Amino acid sequence: MKDWERGEAEREGFRLNYEKFLNACDAQELEGKWDVETNGEMDAWFANDLICAVIRLIAADGRFSLEEVKYLNDALGFSYTAEELSEVYRLSGERIEYMFEREIPESMEVLRKLDPGLAELYRTMMLQICDLIIVSDGKIADEERQAAERLRSMI
Predict the structure, then answer these.
(1) How far apart are CA 155 and CA 56, in angstroms?
(2) Which value, to the nearest 10 degrees, does the dihedral of the CA atoms of residues 10, 12, 15, 17 take?
(3) What gap in Å lies between CA 87 and CA 90, rounded to an integer?
(4) What is the Cα Rg of the chain in Å?
(5) How far from 151 is each of 29, 76, 79, 92, 95, CA to CA, in Å?
(6) Which residues have CB under 8 Å from 147's CB, separation 6+?
(7) CA within 13 Å, CB half, 69
(8) Are 122 and 107 contacting, i.e. CB atoms less than 8 angstroms apart?
């Protein structure tokens, strides 16, 4: 299998897992296992953590490459430019860092208590998108590698 074919298969694997996760979130809400009134929509809660992790990894090396931003856009249905995403990080970087270090691990604990199988799917999905992002521009900076390892240890 060629590199681009492997990359496409990995992206498709992420997309399928993401769709499965979103459907499972809806089911959790319908079954009354997730308090929408208190927490908001379950899929939005965890998508927010996912987006923060991805932006944190993209920002790790201090640059927002077109390839990394394209992967984010393709995977999660956004339409950011590299400049726009850089501005988002400039304005919200402290909040993103806080979420990366504190809220993502806390959210994983909540999800593990709610449904261990769904937590494992989310962990797999988080690692898939992060792996795709850090290799997307063809260069893995030490800072990206460190951020990815930090995420692996937290989830």
Answers:
(1) 15
(2) -70
(3) 5
(4) 15
(5) 27, 19, 25, 19, 16
(6) 56, 57, 60, 100
(7) 16
(8) no
DSSP, collapsed to helix, strand or coil, labels residue 121 as: helix
Question: Which contacts of 16-22 are long-range, i.e. CB under 8 A and separated by 24 or more positions?
Answer: 17/121, 17/124, 17/125, 17/128, 18/75, 18/76, 18/125, 20/121, 21/46, 21/118, 21/121, 21/122, 21/125
Between CA 26 and CA 72 the distance in angstroms is 23
Tens digit of each residue's pLDDT (9 = 90 or more) over 52-99: 999 998 999 888 989 889 888 988 889 999 999 999 999 999 999 898
Give tens-digit pLDDT for 88-133: 999 999 999 898 889 999 999 999 999 999 999 999 999 998 888 8
Q: What is the token pair recorded at 67?
A: 């390839």
Percent helix, strand and coil across the chain, each rounded to 5? Answer: 80, 0, 20
The tokens of 131 are what?
A: 């792996």
Q: Which amino acid is at 24?
A: A
